[in-house]
Batch of 3 targets.
Target 1
Amino acid sequence: MQSNTRKQIFMPFLFGLLVALGVFIGRNFFSAPGGKSNSLMIYPQANKLDALMNLIEEEYVDTVDRMAIEERIIPEILKDLDPHSVYIPAKDLNKVNEELQGNFGGIGVQFSMQNDTVMVIQVIQGGPSEKVGILPGDRIVAVDDSIIAGKGIATDDVMKKLRGEMGTDVKVGVLRRPNKDLIDFNITRGSIPLYSVDVSYMVNETTGYIKVDRFAQNTYQEFLTALAKLKANNCQQVIIDFRGNSGGLLDVAIRLCNEFLPAKDLIVYTEGKSQKRQNVHANGAGTCQDTKVVVLIDEFSASASEIFAGAIQDNDRGLVIGRRSFGKGLVQQQIPLPDGSALRLTVARYHTPSGRCIQKPYENGVDEYYEDIYNRLEHGEFYNADSISFDDDLKYTTKNGRTVYGGGGIMPDIFVPRDTSMITNYFVHLRMNGIMYRYALQYTDNNRQKLEQFTTAEAMKEYLDKQNLLADFLRFAKDKGVAFKQDEYNTSKAQIDIELKAYIARNILDNEGFYPIFHEVDDVFQRAVEEASNMGS
């Protein structure tokens, strides 16, 4: 008892002595000139970066904006990881998330800038604008009593004015032909769906087509709706188009795959340094296990698109047609940060059922990684399958023993080169300057009452085929400063003709009008229809 009492008395005294000794050492051995205490000593902190930022903030000769410095530093740190680990500033997070969430707050119109004026192309059914009476062809001249027509306002700035929090109001002044006076509408912004299934339609009596633009939260339900529509029309084989689809949510890709694969077929597996291997198998509840399938991909099909194509290919479930896909085999997790920003960090690699990781190399930096597409073009890969070489060390086999390769995208079962037979400098000039699109808007605007009588792409095209569109268009193009070149026009004539009619049909019937017409000059699509028809025979 006595020794414990002595310890209780002595320990506080010893602790106080050590503190005093520490202060003495700090003042005498780490002192600045003149005996001033050295405030520049860096004491232990959470990490070196925090210590550095604190030192700059407290001791730097000028006042600094710490947050601005951190906003610049974080992306630089991520550059040394991989091309898909990215930082999303708080100001950009809502916009970035919109594509994956599948909706945003707005008034519910599709518009285009025509002669420096916002022209409504489509009004979303059931949306806020339709409810108050906005019509296709209306010109939005003013927003909240501010004139926007003829002011050179960029499309993004128009969208910022029209979009906003759901439940808030925006006043728009509309010019509607033939009236000369503005009509004022007060619109309450609502939830506007951002569709990821662009179109679905029956190509022929037994073949259906679905184009998927992205893998967002609402994609699976949209996909099921599209499938149900096709099946109700005797669809026995389906073409699924992922061309230009850069990916999205992994779980959505898995759910789409599950519709086509029998029970226990491996869809994909993921694995990372901190994540154990996770296998995902089909559960046997898919609605299209007996439906024949063709998948379309190109050099811009990435991530979730490649998961779907890889699962179909490795399980020998259908055909993949087109050109070699992008080659993104990394999985990101979005992690929210305290200030409202977020980090999308690569946490795993995904592997197709045969075991291949299709991620292309990224060791030489982000710039070279994305320039790979241009290198493929220059190398001739878009035009000749023989120009593509694969490493034998990355050879894998499908369920039925066919050879496939990892390390750089999904190579399709049937390669279809890019068609340039109708592409001339004259055509490129027309497209680059938006001449065909602008003519289609003007033609639609001048003939809306007649065009709105047609409810299908077939009927629309039959009518447009009888109109003298090309002669009128050539005059329009010349007025816009595009010099006519007879030989090049003759080469590109069929392509120009189809695109004009497809754009006009889109202005009235949306994508249900555009794609059935445009597909007439789409070689990849035409080959897919041929192969799908053979499956059904």
Target 2
Amino acid sequence: MTNATSIELKRITWISIVLFLLSCYLWSQREFFSQFKTPSALTIHTGLETATIIIFTSVFMVCWNAFGNLRKRSSLILAVTFLSASIFGFFHAISFQGMPGFPAAIDMHKSLSFWLLSRYLISLTLLGLVLQTRDIDISESISKISVYLGLVLTIIATFIIFTYPEIFPTTYQKGSGQTSFKIHCEMVLVALNSLTAGLFYRQIVHSDRIDSEGHLKIKRSMLFFAAAMMAISETYFSLYSYPDEIFVVIGHAFQVIAALAIYRGMVSINIHAPYSSLIQTTKDLQQTADELLIHKQRLTGVIETAMDGILTINDQHKIILVNPAAAQIFGYTVEALIGTSIDIVIPMRHRNVHSAHVHQFGERGTTRRKMGGNFDDYYVTGLHADGTEFPIEASISSLVENEKRFYTVIFRNISERKAAKEKMAQYHSELTQLSSALQSIREEERKHIARELHDDLGQLLAALRMDLSLLQRDQNMTDKSRLTVSSMDQLLLTSITTLRRIATDLRPRALDEGGLFFALQTLQKEFSQRHGVHCDLIANEEQLILDDERSTAIYRIIQESLTNVARHAKANHVDIQFERTDDALQFVIQDDGRGIEEGAMNKTRSFGLVGMRERIKAMQGNFKVHSEVGKGTRIEIHIPLDTPIYNPAKTSAHLEQN
């Protein structure tokens, strides 16, 4: 409950308590105050009833017209109830004893019957309003049917009361005044209105939404006050015996107070609410306009100071917005570009295609798209004022306003970036060529050193051993010398073995003599014997009949892979499997080791993988490394066989021969 509502509720509660205490005093002095007669009682009664009828009629008009063609159930019930209550009140007023044509006690009975019907309708409706938990929409046709039905029932009840008043229990008798039936009916009304007042009070205290019911605005604090005043008024109406007693006037005065509270709770608030809403809406619109102005100024500042070019065109491809950066990029002024066609900044050969692309972009309904972001495809090209062309990286967005489509392009001149990219590509190509040259030179040097070791130094060691063999046959040699010569022979044998191993590591003779298949078989056996890791080679000789460059590169790749397995993988098993097609060779190297940790493959010191990558790139192939910690590593390599291999050494030699 809001603070304002709490204060209002306290004020109304105190007023109700004061009026109740005053009424208690009057009720306690009933015998005394009943002696006072009201002068012009009929006139006062008619005036007070007329005021009540007018108020109830206004409640009907507000509840009926609050929603137009679609009403809520609560507003429809209130409209029908107060319409019928105002009609019954009118007939109560005109049939009250003393009015022209209604002098008898039976006429007073008719008037009080109208009174009871009117007050029960209002009391029960207010009780239903406070008990209602869910409201629903009522269509225009059902609303009209309900009003017509209410009028018909009201007319029928009025006809019965006027024509057959004896159908209803007697409410007034000549000489004695109100009957016990009438008094009991008033007590029931007191109870109903007291219950309604209590429920309204409880609802106000425990609810945050106390001033509205659906779309119909209801001030529940005033309805609480109205129910309390109706309960007090009905008590007065149970005390009088004759129509001119003071209690009748006091009861009607409380009844008018209750009607005014209903007016304040239903009519005034619904008349005042649209104006309050309009004022608040006006304030909100002004605040929104101020905020939009601030946002516009901020957006204008961003556009004006942006380093990227920003350009907006309409559906006729006319430039309607351009920032200084865009004008500078194209070599124009902002004023020169505004209102011109976008074709002024597009090369002639691209204009038709560009218009078609923009139209298709708008037709697809896409809101934004990136253009010209691929360095290898600068299809977005700008035209400078001096006629030169330059590459552009841009994004385009589409927006529909007032059924017209606008396109905004944010772009930048990437001439310097393109030049840097091309220079970087050139450097990368040169580095690749250098790496390939170094690989070829190193392989040639290895081959040369291996040949020198095997042919020269190997022959010398073999000859030296033969000389030692001849020396061992000398019969005059002492036993000590013979032992020394034997030791020298073992050293020479070890040296020859070591020399052969070094020569084989540098350049396996099997690769030159038997081809790649036999070289890999030898490598497989030596790897298994040296490191104790089981290695399977799944291939056949026909698959591995290749030229010398590819054979050497593949041998080195597998050699490096096995070296990595021996050094890092801690594997128990390695598989090397080849598959060959007419135009490509694929092979897989897989181990069951501990795998490669994430990021380890990109370390700058991973020269093994770098060397493999460079060899594969020289053959225009590709490779993938799949590794998971604890589950081993799998290297997949694909090498085309129908593309030439760049060999700087051979190219240089060929040029020297020519």
Target 3
Amino acid sequence: MLQELSIKNFAIIDHLDVAFKNGMTVLTGETGAGKSIIIDAVGLLAGGRGSANFVRTGTDKAIIQGSFIFPTGGTTYRVLDDLGIDHDDGSVILQREIHANGRNTCRVNGMLVNTSTLKRIGETAVDIHGQNEHQELMQPEKHLGMLDEFAGAKVAKLRENYGQIYRRYTQLQSTLENRRTNEKEWAQHLDMLTFQVNEIESANLQPGEEDKLVAERDRLDNYQRINDALQRSQMTLTGEETAPGVTDQLSSALQAMQGIADFDAAFKQISDSLETAYYALTDAVGAVSSQLDLLEWDEGRLDAIEQRLDVINQLKRKYGDSESQVLKYYDKIAAELKQMQATDEQADDLEEQVAAQETKLHEVGEQLSEARHHASEKLEKAIHAELADLYMAKTVFAVRFSRPKNEGLLSTGLDHVEFYLRTNPGEAMRPLAKIASGGELSRIMLALKTIFSESQGITSIIFDEVDTGVSGRVAQAIAEKISGIARESQVLCITHLPQVAAMADHHYFIAKKIVGERTETSLARLDSDARIDEIARMSAGTQVTKLALEHAHELLNLADETKKRQAKEK
């Protein structure tokens, strides 16, 4: 449920903080006071489309923040776990900033996320229905999804199975069609991949090989220079027949200092330093001698290195700027070649595979269709029961199935589904989208929401003036339906109907006023007396009479009795 909502610099709202509770909360006020603006703010927290137009004039950004709690093990927490977002304290804070330049910043529990991620989380937390939300009912392509949602786990499992087979079927069919229409291109591409794979394989390229070869080539190219330097170093260190080397001279100096080292600590330090230098120089002599022993000139090896480097450079010119890129390209084309060769081997029975997958699709599709038909019967009965409570007892609701003739197999199953309606006896059944009025759509949507409220797992449901176009006993019936939904989920409701307002557990009044030269929206929770005044105003209009106040008081008493009855029936 939504616990707290904070809005700053949003449209005509300067700063607004409100705490919500479970049950049914109504927001009322004059037209234009900003009721729907609050719902728009919640919609943005649920991942709705943002716009710089939402930012209050003269400010840099709008900030919206909502604090939510959800049932343990609920859908929202599973989504957060999938996304790696921490929720150890049991609460989730959604925050969104919309900047005047159009930039959006979204956070979930302090973690930066993109709008798509915010929407993925928000749609599990908040379900918003406004005056235009009935349009989902006006879109026949949405009806199949609504039926599947009602049908539950059995249909969901069959649809997933069907989807897996369908994806495999389309892959095979695409491969087959490509083979048929592009056989020449296929063969040419296969030959090219075979040549490239063989060329790279035969080169037996090794990571880091080029650097080692370049170093070895440079050593051979500079053989004479290296030999001269080593010879000169050895001669200087070891000496000649006519002159002692540095090593012998250092040895003499060491022996001299060792002879007087015991007479003074300074002499001892000099002796130790000479000894260290002597042994280091002796090691250097050994290293120079070893390098001279290893040094050899091999003109054949130099030619081999140049040829190998030429092979590597040719591969790099064709397939990548480095050895690693060449090898990466090799892995890619080797996998593609393997797949094409496998497809080539299977070419003879590819048509049989396509046919086999199509047969599987029809088998699972028929099972899915049967499960949907069974679910549609239950949905029709449930809708009729709900519509009867909403004074549409003579209305007939039906789920119609049809099989596409020229579209081929569908990704969702074998059937098209569309909702049909007959509002008056004696009339023909017609598509719901073509004959339902606004008031009828409101009630049908409310019937569906009542049926779905338990199964969806949504913890906060918002109705934005869905009662528009109704009055009298129908308004009372809608109020009772919304109150019934609030027993399963938190409900926030914007309404102009006193019957709906009276059924609420919590009542907020929204008003706008001029502060300085700016319009601001304020929100206040109404106590018992203030509720009576507001409901009377909703009933009577501008002139609140004593009779209107008595009627408001009666509506609240009747609402209390209705809620007690609902609790017993539950």
